[in-house]
Structure formats: structure tokens, C-alpha cells
Q: What sequence folds into this?
């Protein structure tokens, strides 16, 4: 009987050294492929986002930061794959570890390239990627040593390239902002801060300060009681993009021409966005203001769509690790495959168990409703953190901060774990109101933080919305395809202690496109009038300083360009009522009447003072016909004067 001699110390050390070298080789491969795949993926996402701009409402969007975020995600993912291959090799010693790992990493890299085009079926991408990976692995079998040597030598250069990209993007943003702020003129002593808060998709009649039956908005009500509330403010459009452009330019949609998504210029928007009209941010920069935008609406209020002009600082995407992950290619794949599942899914339950609720707080960016991937919602709490962090960076200059809260937008309701209001029985309206109660709470927290820091008393606060929501009215659930009262009637509250009257309610119909002119009017109170204020129409201050002007106030317009992208749940009304799916629309609101004119389908007329739900179209009555003639002439005159004809 023979026995094998125990391994000598030198043999044991050799085995350990070989294992370490093998582990380092696998790790180097994973890092190399991860950085390479991530850099090309990030550039590809930026490229095809521009190429596929017509699908803007149905994609998850990115900005230049994706070029360094994608490599981080891919490296972590590929390292996990390498670890799995290494563990399998421990159980199966004959496994050609390098070839298997290269096969998998090549497949994942090529699949990523094919998928990011958004032009091929996923099954086709899988098959093509697998074919390329198999062919490359066959080549590797004959050139393994040469390939390994190449990857090992170039891995440090790949890491250096990643670091250079990261520093260039993040450092470039910081340097650009610091340089721009340093070049601002000196602000006038006592210049007030400016805070514009847009509660996306909030119809005015669901605020308790607008006589709603539920206590949905105690914080907003308190602010309204200390400022001026406009009972009949009208948005310039019934969806976000044109309305936000009006809020920053003071122009109607047909003037600023951002009525639908436009292709992104390859070299950036420059000064050409919004038809070149000056923005409120630009005017305030000339007065020495730092300007920043903080958006939870990553579809239609971003610098990508042309709304960045006038803001030295813009925070929209990548507000959290979950959001950053979802915007990468494999993050979107994960969202597409798993985040559309029910709460009974083992993956969903596992994520809940791991405390990853934020990843499951779905946003309709990316149009998961159409079968695509859901993005991750950016809540009011995250917007607050962003703006407070930015304000604290520089307390020497006055600030202009423009906030978009998305918590009232579909899908409705506050985040999981936030206490539900007593009325919430999970109906659509209950959930809509619950989302309002949540964002009202965080709006109050933001202002409390400003008071704590001694900033609130010298801050102009404007609260409004970009549009309302149908919630079943006229057979529609959402917004963006019509101009009924519940879609354009929005809140408008102006708070500036000691400078605007407390508790005043203005009944005159006004456009919230007057916000820029009104802010410039208030900013000019303690300093010489700036010529920029003349570029923004209709300042509202006259309505509380000279109430007699109310009856002569210009009737607000709303405009809606033809838009073929109709939410699935609202397609049933197309062809039954006039909608933007069939042509352009425009409306005019007077102290009694609301005239809605469709490009092809004629006019509607409502007495909104007694029929706010607009159920009784009076256009065919004797009074209605006579009224419509006069209002049509007024509408034509307003449009002609506005357009300079």
C-alpha cells in the first residue's frame, strides 16, 4: 500500500500563487470589459436618445453623466459575473475559465450595443450577441496568451480613461458653474431670493384653499393666507413642456414655439431654444442672481428638451443610486423584466425585504404603461435635498430656484410607508389627493428649513402648476389632449412678506405666464427698474395695487398644438370629442366664458362660473352663438396683436 507524499511548502505556495494570478486575471478582464462596454454604452445612449427623439415620451432619458455612470454599473455587474465563473471553476476544474468569462462578457457587451439602438427586438439582440460572442471565443482559443497580455497591459489605461471622463464631466460642471457665478454682477443690497414651485399636474380645485372639501393642503393654505391667491389662474397649455416654457419665458406656446418635443441639437441648445425669447433666469442673472432648476419631471422639464437656458445649475437625472442604475442599459433591462411585476413576485418581495423600496417607486418616465421600462420616481424629499444643498453652497448672493414637484402626477399617491390620509380608500381621486397631501407636507418642510436659516422673510415664493388633470372629466383620465377648465385651471399664490398683501384673493382670470414679469416687478421694488422687466408681459402686481384694472385685464389664452401621442387610457375619447389628436386647439377665458376652438372641429362655449365641469356646451344656443362671435373676434385680435400682425 502506497501513500502520496504531502505537498511541499513550495508546491502549496505555487498553487496559491497560481490561484491569485488567475483571480487577478479574471478581475482585470471584468474591469476592462466593464469600462469598455460602459463608456461605449454611455456614448451610445446619448447618441440614440437624439436619433430616437420622436419617441421622447417613451424612453428613459440621460445626460452626459451617463458616460461615467454606465462604466461603474457595468464594472460591478461584470465583476459579479467573474466571481460566479470563478466559483463554478472551483467545482469543475476542467472549465476553461478565461474563455467562458470572455464568452459571457463579450455577449453582454454586444447585447448592450444592439439594445441601446432601441430599433431591434430583444430576441434578435440576444441571438446576434450570442453569435458574435461564440465567434470571438473561437478566435480567442487560438490567441489566448496574446489576448490576455493585451488586456492585462491595457487595463490600467482603461481605468485612467474612466477617471479622465469622470473628472472632465463632473469637474467641468463644477468649474463652469463656479466661473459663471464669479462673472455675475454684484446684486443690489437687499435683493430678495426667488423661489418658484411648480406642483406638476395639480388642478386648483383640489386645494383646500380653493374651497376643496378635503384638507389636502394645510401648508399651501397657510402660505395663501399670508399672500395673494389668484382664484382663476390659467395655464398656457394642458401638458408640461409648452407650459414650463411659458413659465420661464412669459410667452404663450405659439410664441416660444416649444409646443412639442424638438430634436436635440448635437452641440447643445445654446440661445436658440424657445425661439430665443429671454428667460426669467437670464434676467435675474443680470441682476447678480445664482439660478438653479430642480426637476422631478425628467420627461419634459429638463435641459435636454431646451429648458436649461437661464439656469447655471440644473438637477434632473441621477438623483439617487436607484435612479442612476435604472438609466443605464442593464438597469433599464432590469426594470423592463422585473419592475412591471406584481407585489407577489419573488423579485419584488426580495427587493422589499432588502429595503430597496425606492427602486420600486415607479415613475411613468419611459412609458412602462406601453410595455417599456419604468423609471424611478424622484420624490419631493429628494428635490428638497437638492435645492437646500445648492442654496448652502453660496449664501453671499441672492438665489433664484425653480422647483418641479411630480408627486401629484400619475401614478398617484405618496411613497410607500408615508402615512395615508384618513380619506384614502385607494380610489383614483383618493390617491391623487394623497399625493397632494404628501407634496404639501414637503413644501412646508422646505419653507421651514428656509425660515430656520433666516432666508424665508426675504424670499419671493410663487406656487403654481403647469396644468391640471381630467380625473374622469369628459371621459378622460389624464391631460395633454384638450383644454377643458379642469386641465388649465391651476393654483397661483404669491407670497412675499411685507411686499404683497396678506390674505388677498383675486378673482380676475389671469395667465400664469405672467409669473416672470411679476417677479421682475417685485425684484425691482428696492432697486432701479431693469429693462428686462419690459420684455415679460402682464405683471400681476397691478391687480393688488390698482384693483380697478381688473375688469380691463387681458383674457388669458391657452394653446395646444396637435399631438399624436395620446395616453392609452384616453384613446377612447379621440373622435368623440375635439382633441389635439385631430388638430391644434386654442382657448380664451373671460370672467364668465370659456371659448375653446379646434382647428378642424369647431368651437365649444361654456359658462365656467356656473358649470366648472363644463358639461353644458352652449355654442348652439342663441346666447352662445352671439357670445362666441364676440369672443372669436377678441381671440383673433389677441393673437394678431401678440404675433405682431
A:
Amino acid at each position: 500500500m502506497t501513500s502520496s507524499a504531502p505537498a511541499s511548502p513550495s508546491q502549496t505556495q505555487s498553487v496559491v500563487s497560481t490561484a491569485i494570478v488567475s483571480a487577478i486575471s479574471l478581475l482585470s478582464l471584468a474591469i476592462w470589459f466593464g469600462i469598455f462596454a460602459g463608456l461605449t454604452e454611455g456614448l451610445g445612449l446619448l447618441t440614440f436618445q437624439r436619433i430616437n427623439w420622436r419617441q421622447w415620451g417613451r424612453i428613459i432619458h440621460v445626460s452626459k453623466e451617463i458616460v461615467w455612470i454606465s462604466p461603474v454599473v457595468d464594472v460591478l455587474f461584470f465583476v459579479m459575473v467573474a466571481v460566479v465563473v470563478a466559483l463554478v471553476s472551483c467545482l469543475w476544474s476542467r472549465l476553461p475559465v478565461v474563455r467562458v468569462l470572455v464568452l459571457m462578457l463579450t455577449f453582454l457587451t454586444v447585447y448592450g450595443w444592439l439594445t441601446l439602438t432601441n430599433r431591434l427586438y430583444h430576441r434578435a439582440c440576444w441571438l446576434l450577441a450570442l453569435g458574435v460572442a461564440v465567434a470571438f471565443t473561437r478566435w480567442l482559443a487560438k490567441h489566448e496568451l496574446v489576448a490576455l497580455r493585451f488586456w492585462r497591459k491595457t487595463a490600467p489605461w482603461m481605468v485612467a480613461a474612466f477617471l479622465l471622463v469622470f473628472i472632465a464631466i463632473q469637474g467641468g460642471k463644477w468649474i463652469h458653474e463656479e466661473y459663471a457665478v464669479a462673472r455675475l454682477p454684484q446684486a443690489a443690497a437687499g435683493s430678495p431670493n426667488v423661489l418658484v414651485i411648480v406642483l406638476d399636474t395639480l388642478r386648483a380645485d383640489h386645494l383646500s384653499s380653493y374651497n376643496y372639501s378635503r384638507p389636502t393642503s394645510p401648508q399651501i393654505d397657510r402660505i395663501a393666507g399670508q399672500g395673494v391667491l389668484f382664484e382663476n389662474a390659467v395655464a398656457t397649455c394642458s401638458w408640461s413642456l409648452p407650459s414650463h416654457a411659458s413659465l420661464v419665458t412669459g410667452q404663450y406656446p405659439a410664441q416660444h414655439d416649444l409646443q412639442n418635443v424638438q430634436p436635440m441639437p448635437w452641440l447643445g441648445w445654446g440661445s436658440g431654444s424657445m425661439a430665443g425669447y429671454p428667460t426669467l433666469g437670464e434676467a435675474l442673472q443680470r441682476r447678480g442672481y445664482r439660478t438653479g432648476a430642480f426637476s422631478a419631471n425628467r420627461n419634459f422639464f429638463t435641459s435636454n428638451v431646451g429648458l436649461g437656458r437661464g439656469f447655471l445649475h440644473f438637477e434632473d437625472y441621477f438623483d439617487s443610486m436607484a435612479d442612476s442604475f435604472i438609466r443605464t442599459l442593464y438597469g433599464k433591462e432590469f426594470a423592463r423584466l422585473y419592475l412591471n411585476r406584481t407585489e407577489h413576485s419573488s423579485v419584488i418581495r426580495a427587493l422589499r425585504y432588502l429595503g430597496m423600496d425606492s427602486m420600486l417607486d415607479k415613475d411613468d418616465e419611459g412609458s412602462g404603461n406601453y410595455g417599456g421600462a419604468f423609471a424611478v420616481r424622484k420624490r419631493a424629499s429628494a428635490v428638497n435635498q437638492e435645492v437646500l444643498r445648492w442654496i448652502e453652497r453660496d449664501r453671499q448672493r441672492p438665489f433664484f430656484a425653480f422647483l418641479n414637484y411630480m408627486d401629484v402626477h400619475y401614478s398617484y399617491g405618496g411613497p410607500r410607508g408615508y402615512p395615508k390620509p384618513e380619506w384614502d380608500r385607494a380610489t383614483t381621486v383618493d390617491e391623487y389627493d394623497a399625493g397632494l397631501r404628501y407634496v404639501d407636507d414637503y413644501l412646508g418642510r422646505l419653507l421651514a428649513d428656509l425660515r430656520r436659516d433666516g432666508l424665508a422673510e426675504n424670499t419671493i415664493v410663487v406656487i403654481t402648476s403647469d396644468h391640471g388633470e381630467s380625473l374622469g372629466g369628459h371621459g378622460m383620465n389624464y391631460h395633454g389632449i384638450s383644454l377643458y377648465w379642469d386641465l388649465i385651471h391651476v393654483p397661483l399664490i404669491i407670497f412675499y412678506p411685507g411686499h404683497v398683501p396678506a390674505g388677498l384673493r383675486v378673482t380676475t382670470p389671469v395667465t400664469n405666464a405672467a409669473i416672470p414679469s411679476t417677479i421682475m416687478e417685485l425684484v425691482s421694488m428696492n432697486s432701479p427698474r431693469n429693462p428686462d422687466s419690459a420684455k415679460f408681459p402682464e405683471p400681476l402686481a397691478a391687480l393688488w395695487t390698482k384693483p380697478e384694472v381688473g375688469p380691463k385685464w387681458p383674457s388669458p389664452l391657452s394653446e395646444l398644438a396637435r399631438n399624436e401621442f395620446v395616453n392609452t387610457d384616453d384613446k377612447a375619447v379621440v373622435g368623440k370629442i375635439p382633441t389635439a389628436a385631430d388638430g391644434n386647439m386654442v382657448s380664451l377665458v373671460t370672467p364668465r366664458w370659456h371659448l375653446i376652438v379646434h382647428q378642424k372641429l369647431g368651437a365649444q362655449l361654456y359658462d365656467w362660473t356656473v358649470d366648472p365641469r363644463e358639461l353644458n356646451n352652449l355654442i348652439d344656443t342663441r346666447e352662445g352663438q352671439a357670445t362666441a362671435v364676440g369672443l372669436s373676434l377678441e381671440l383673433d385680435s389677441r393673437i394678431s396683436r401678440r404675433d405682431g400682425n
Observations:
- Residues 320-377 form one domain.
- Confidence is low (pLDDT under 50) at residues 9-21.
- The chain is about 45% helix and 10% strand.
- The two ends are 110 Å apart (CA to CA).
